Amino acid sequence: MGAVSDVLSQLETLLGASGFTTDPVVSESYLAEWRGRYRGETPFIALPTNSREVAEIVRICARAGIAITPQGGNTGLVGGQIPQGEVLVSLRRMKRILDIDPLTDSMTVEAGVVLANVQAAAANIDRLFPMSLGSEGSATVGGLISTNAGGVHVMRYGMMRDLVMGLEVVLPNGQVLSALQPLRKDNTGYDLKHLFVGAEGTLGIVTAATLKLCPRSREHVVALAAVNSADDALSILQMLRSATDSLTAFEIMNAACVQVAVEQTPVLRHPFPCWKSWVVLIEFQAVRDVGLMETVEHLLADAMEAALIADVIIANSERQSREFWHLRESISGAQRALGAQSNHDISVPVSAVPEFLRSAAIAAHGVLSDVRILAFGHAGDGNVHYTVAMPATGSASEFENARAAIAEAVYSVVMKLGGSFSAEHGIGVARRDDLYRFKSSVALELMKAIKTSLDPQGIMNPRAMLRR
Amino acid sequence: MGAVSDVLSQLETLLGASGFTTDPVVSESYLAEWRGRYRGETPFIALPTNSREVAEIVRICARAGIAITPQGGNTGLVGGQIPQGEVLVSLRRMKRILDIDPLTDSMTVEAGVVLANVQAAAANIDRLFPMSLGSEGSATVGGLISTNAGGVHVMRYGMMRDLVMGLEVVLPNGQVLSALQPLRKDNTGYDLKHLFVGAEGTLGIVTAATLKLCPRSREHVVALAAVNSADDALSILQMLRSATDSLTAFEIMNAACVQVAVEQTPVLRHPFPCWKSWVVLIEFQAVRDVGLMETVEHLLADAMEAALIADVIIANSERQSREFWHLRESISGAQRALGAQSNHDISVPVSAVPEFLRSAAIAAHGVLSDVRILAFGHAGDGNVHYTVAMPATGSASEFENARAAIAEAVYSVVMKLGGSFSAEHGIGVARRDDLYRFKSSVALELMKAIKTSLDPQGIMNPRAMLRR
Could you give the ipTM of this predicted complex? Predict the structure, then answer.
């Protein structure tokens, strides 16, 4: 332990009294995962304020072969940000906006800037940063990049990787890759940026990024539709995509999702109280007034005419639009009330979503009858958040005994349909065994070769993604 | 040479009589670069018909340590596809469309499928494959992916990498990475796909790809505008982007470009015969009739009102739209008539395009007065194709003496503005020295580490991009 205490004292000297924390209460916000599924431990919580300090931290640790877990807003869903003995490097204090250029539609920020602040800074110059997700008040740019976050606007604007133009990364040897360029095109060698996006901090620590902005939407319309089946939802999606350039979100929720969200969220009311099937949230945006409301009314009337929609409510105010989104965004938290459950974040080809939903439900019920299925998500991306919860009248222990078989049943449907076992939440610790089961050996070998090549000591976030 | 002849006979046996060529006339189409700037040589031209054969070719060569140059449609602009002693693997015969799914908006094709055929197959199912560039009648999917091609619709739809969902790649050891998945989201480990896109065949041979399709545009409007300056062009771009979601291309051409295109292309007439400044081609598309023509008329009238546009012609027929595009696309070939010239494919932040144009012209004229400047390209991406041609009355040898200093002058402006010395054409052989001059040493080291890790023998396209 001589080496460790020596490293810690070097880190203390480097960072000064305000640059780390030993306070147990403060530490808790770094070590406890928000859902309580992971609880970490660390010899040191570093709170650097600039990339020079991050680089020096990495160099000090690298020399001693001590491992590091980088952390952003601690909102990750797969445990990749929680240390188990590694030095924790929190980027939260690195929250400066370094540059913003409305003509280039770009913004350069430090990694600790919270998504909501990026959105606000863009809005201040009449621009849009289009990433939007439930944890946007806490999630940081560095974490969003390292996990290649998704969210509700992927169909129109892409994942986080599609919104990054340049990166600054502290590499596992303490060198700094500086490529914070607001360039829309740059074909000069391998695209290193894409290697670090989604790497979950295993290849280096993202310390800053240049992000793409978009024109701001002046018009938006949100509607909730009651539909009879996922097939019908998909038909509506196709119809809308070929009829308008303004579709920005298409989110499906099964009846159980809507019910639990309404039950668990006092301010919410069921939009279609007697409806026992799917509800779809549909959002349209346009940069300028193009009579969007009228277009949407026509399109949704056409869909009712074609018997694809049973009922529909178009939000008639900003407030109602927010209520509709609140319903959708409450599901994830609300479903925890259903007790023991197996959560999956899967994707399949868009055309296979209905088939997935049918087959996965049959497969899950085959393992344990009366389980409750909660399915919601980004149908336009083929991405379904799929939860199998314990029967309403069953016991948690009975469910726990069946958990592995249920997950297996769901995954086997995903694999049969050529899908992904982790569409947007990543691997972290939670899906690491699945990675080794489902990823092709050639892909795994390539990943390991890259990891070894960049981080031969294996000190960067060693518990996430690849096994040591 | 025993080893080489042994390898060649193994390749002959593997591929059969129709699987390679020794015919000097046929060989010429693989060895001669279309502009005549590169002339290659090879001991063997392999013409495989499937990825299994490609993998076997690579295994045979890898065992003997013999290098390979992969080639698509032989339309590359930087010499990366021309072998100098390597075995040439042409993908041209691998031209099957393997799968096409209008519900998922995806298409899986072999690497040798020509871009125009991808576009046509998409149109057949009422979809759009949005990549569009001058060489689309010859360029293949594999080449477009390996060079991360750009083109005229990047502003709206992205580069080739943004249109790829999955890849099949034969690795330098002959293993096959199979990831032909039509998934819009998949966060299961490092994004290996992006490593091979733009790698110019130095990390493996792309043998097939799953591509993204889009809804087809039913309405389009093309206009040519006469504008006084690049600053005004940029102001128009900003105005249009914030006023409509329908802008799909914004291409600038200086007066010299328009003049040489008209002079060298008999069917073209000058759209604004007395105009001696910039011409901008502006394209708008919408998936369905939304009164686009009326919107465009209003917007361009506003721009004239604001004195940003001096004159404008909106195409009144499909034929005239094609004529406008023909003017833009003729420049690249036509400018060769101007004799000795230094060509650059640069990008800068969009806001810096006018400053680049001003400073680069001053810098180039400072080296050799009376040089002619041809500047055109994708202003919406900050990407300018910038040519400095010998003075009309000067001598080619005088220009050749100044060539290096001219290129240096242009690049120093690019670098000062934080730009890229190769925005969309790549590195190949032509820009390799520039890569070593301008890329950061940290980035170069990472590139070399990745190359060494995947291709320790250095047999995959060894002359392109990185030095051996």
Answer: 0.96
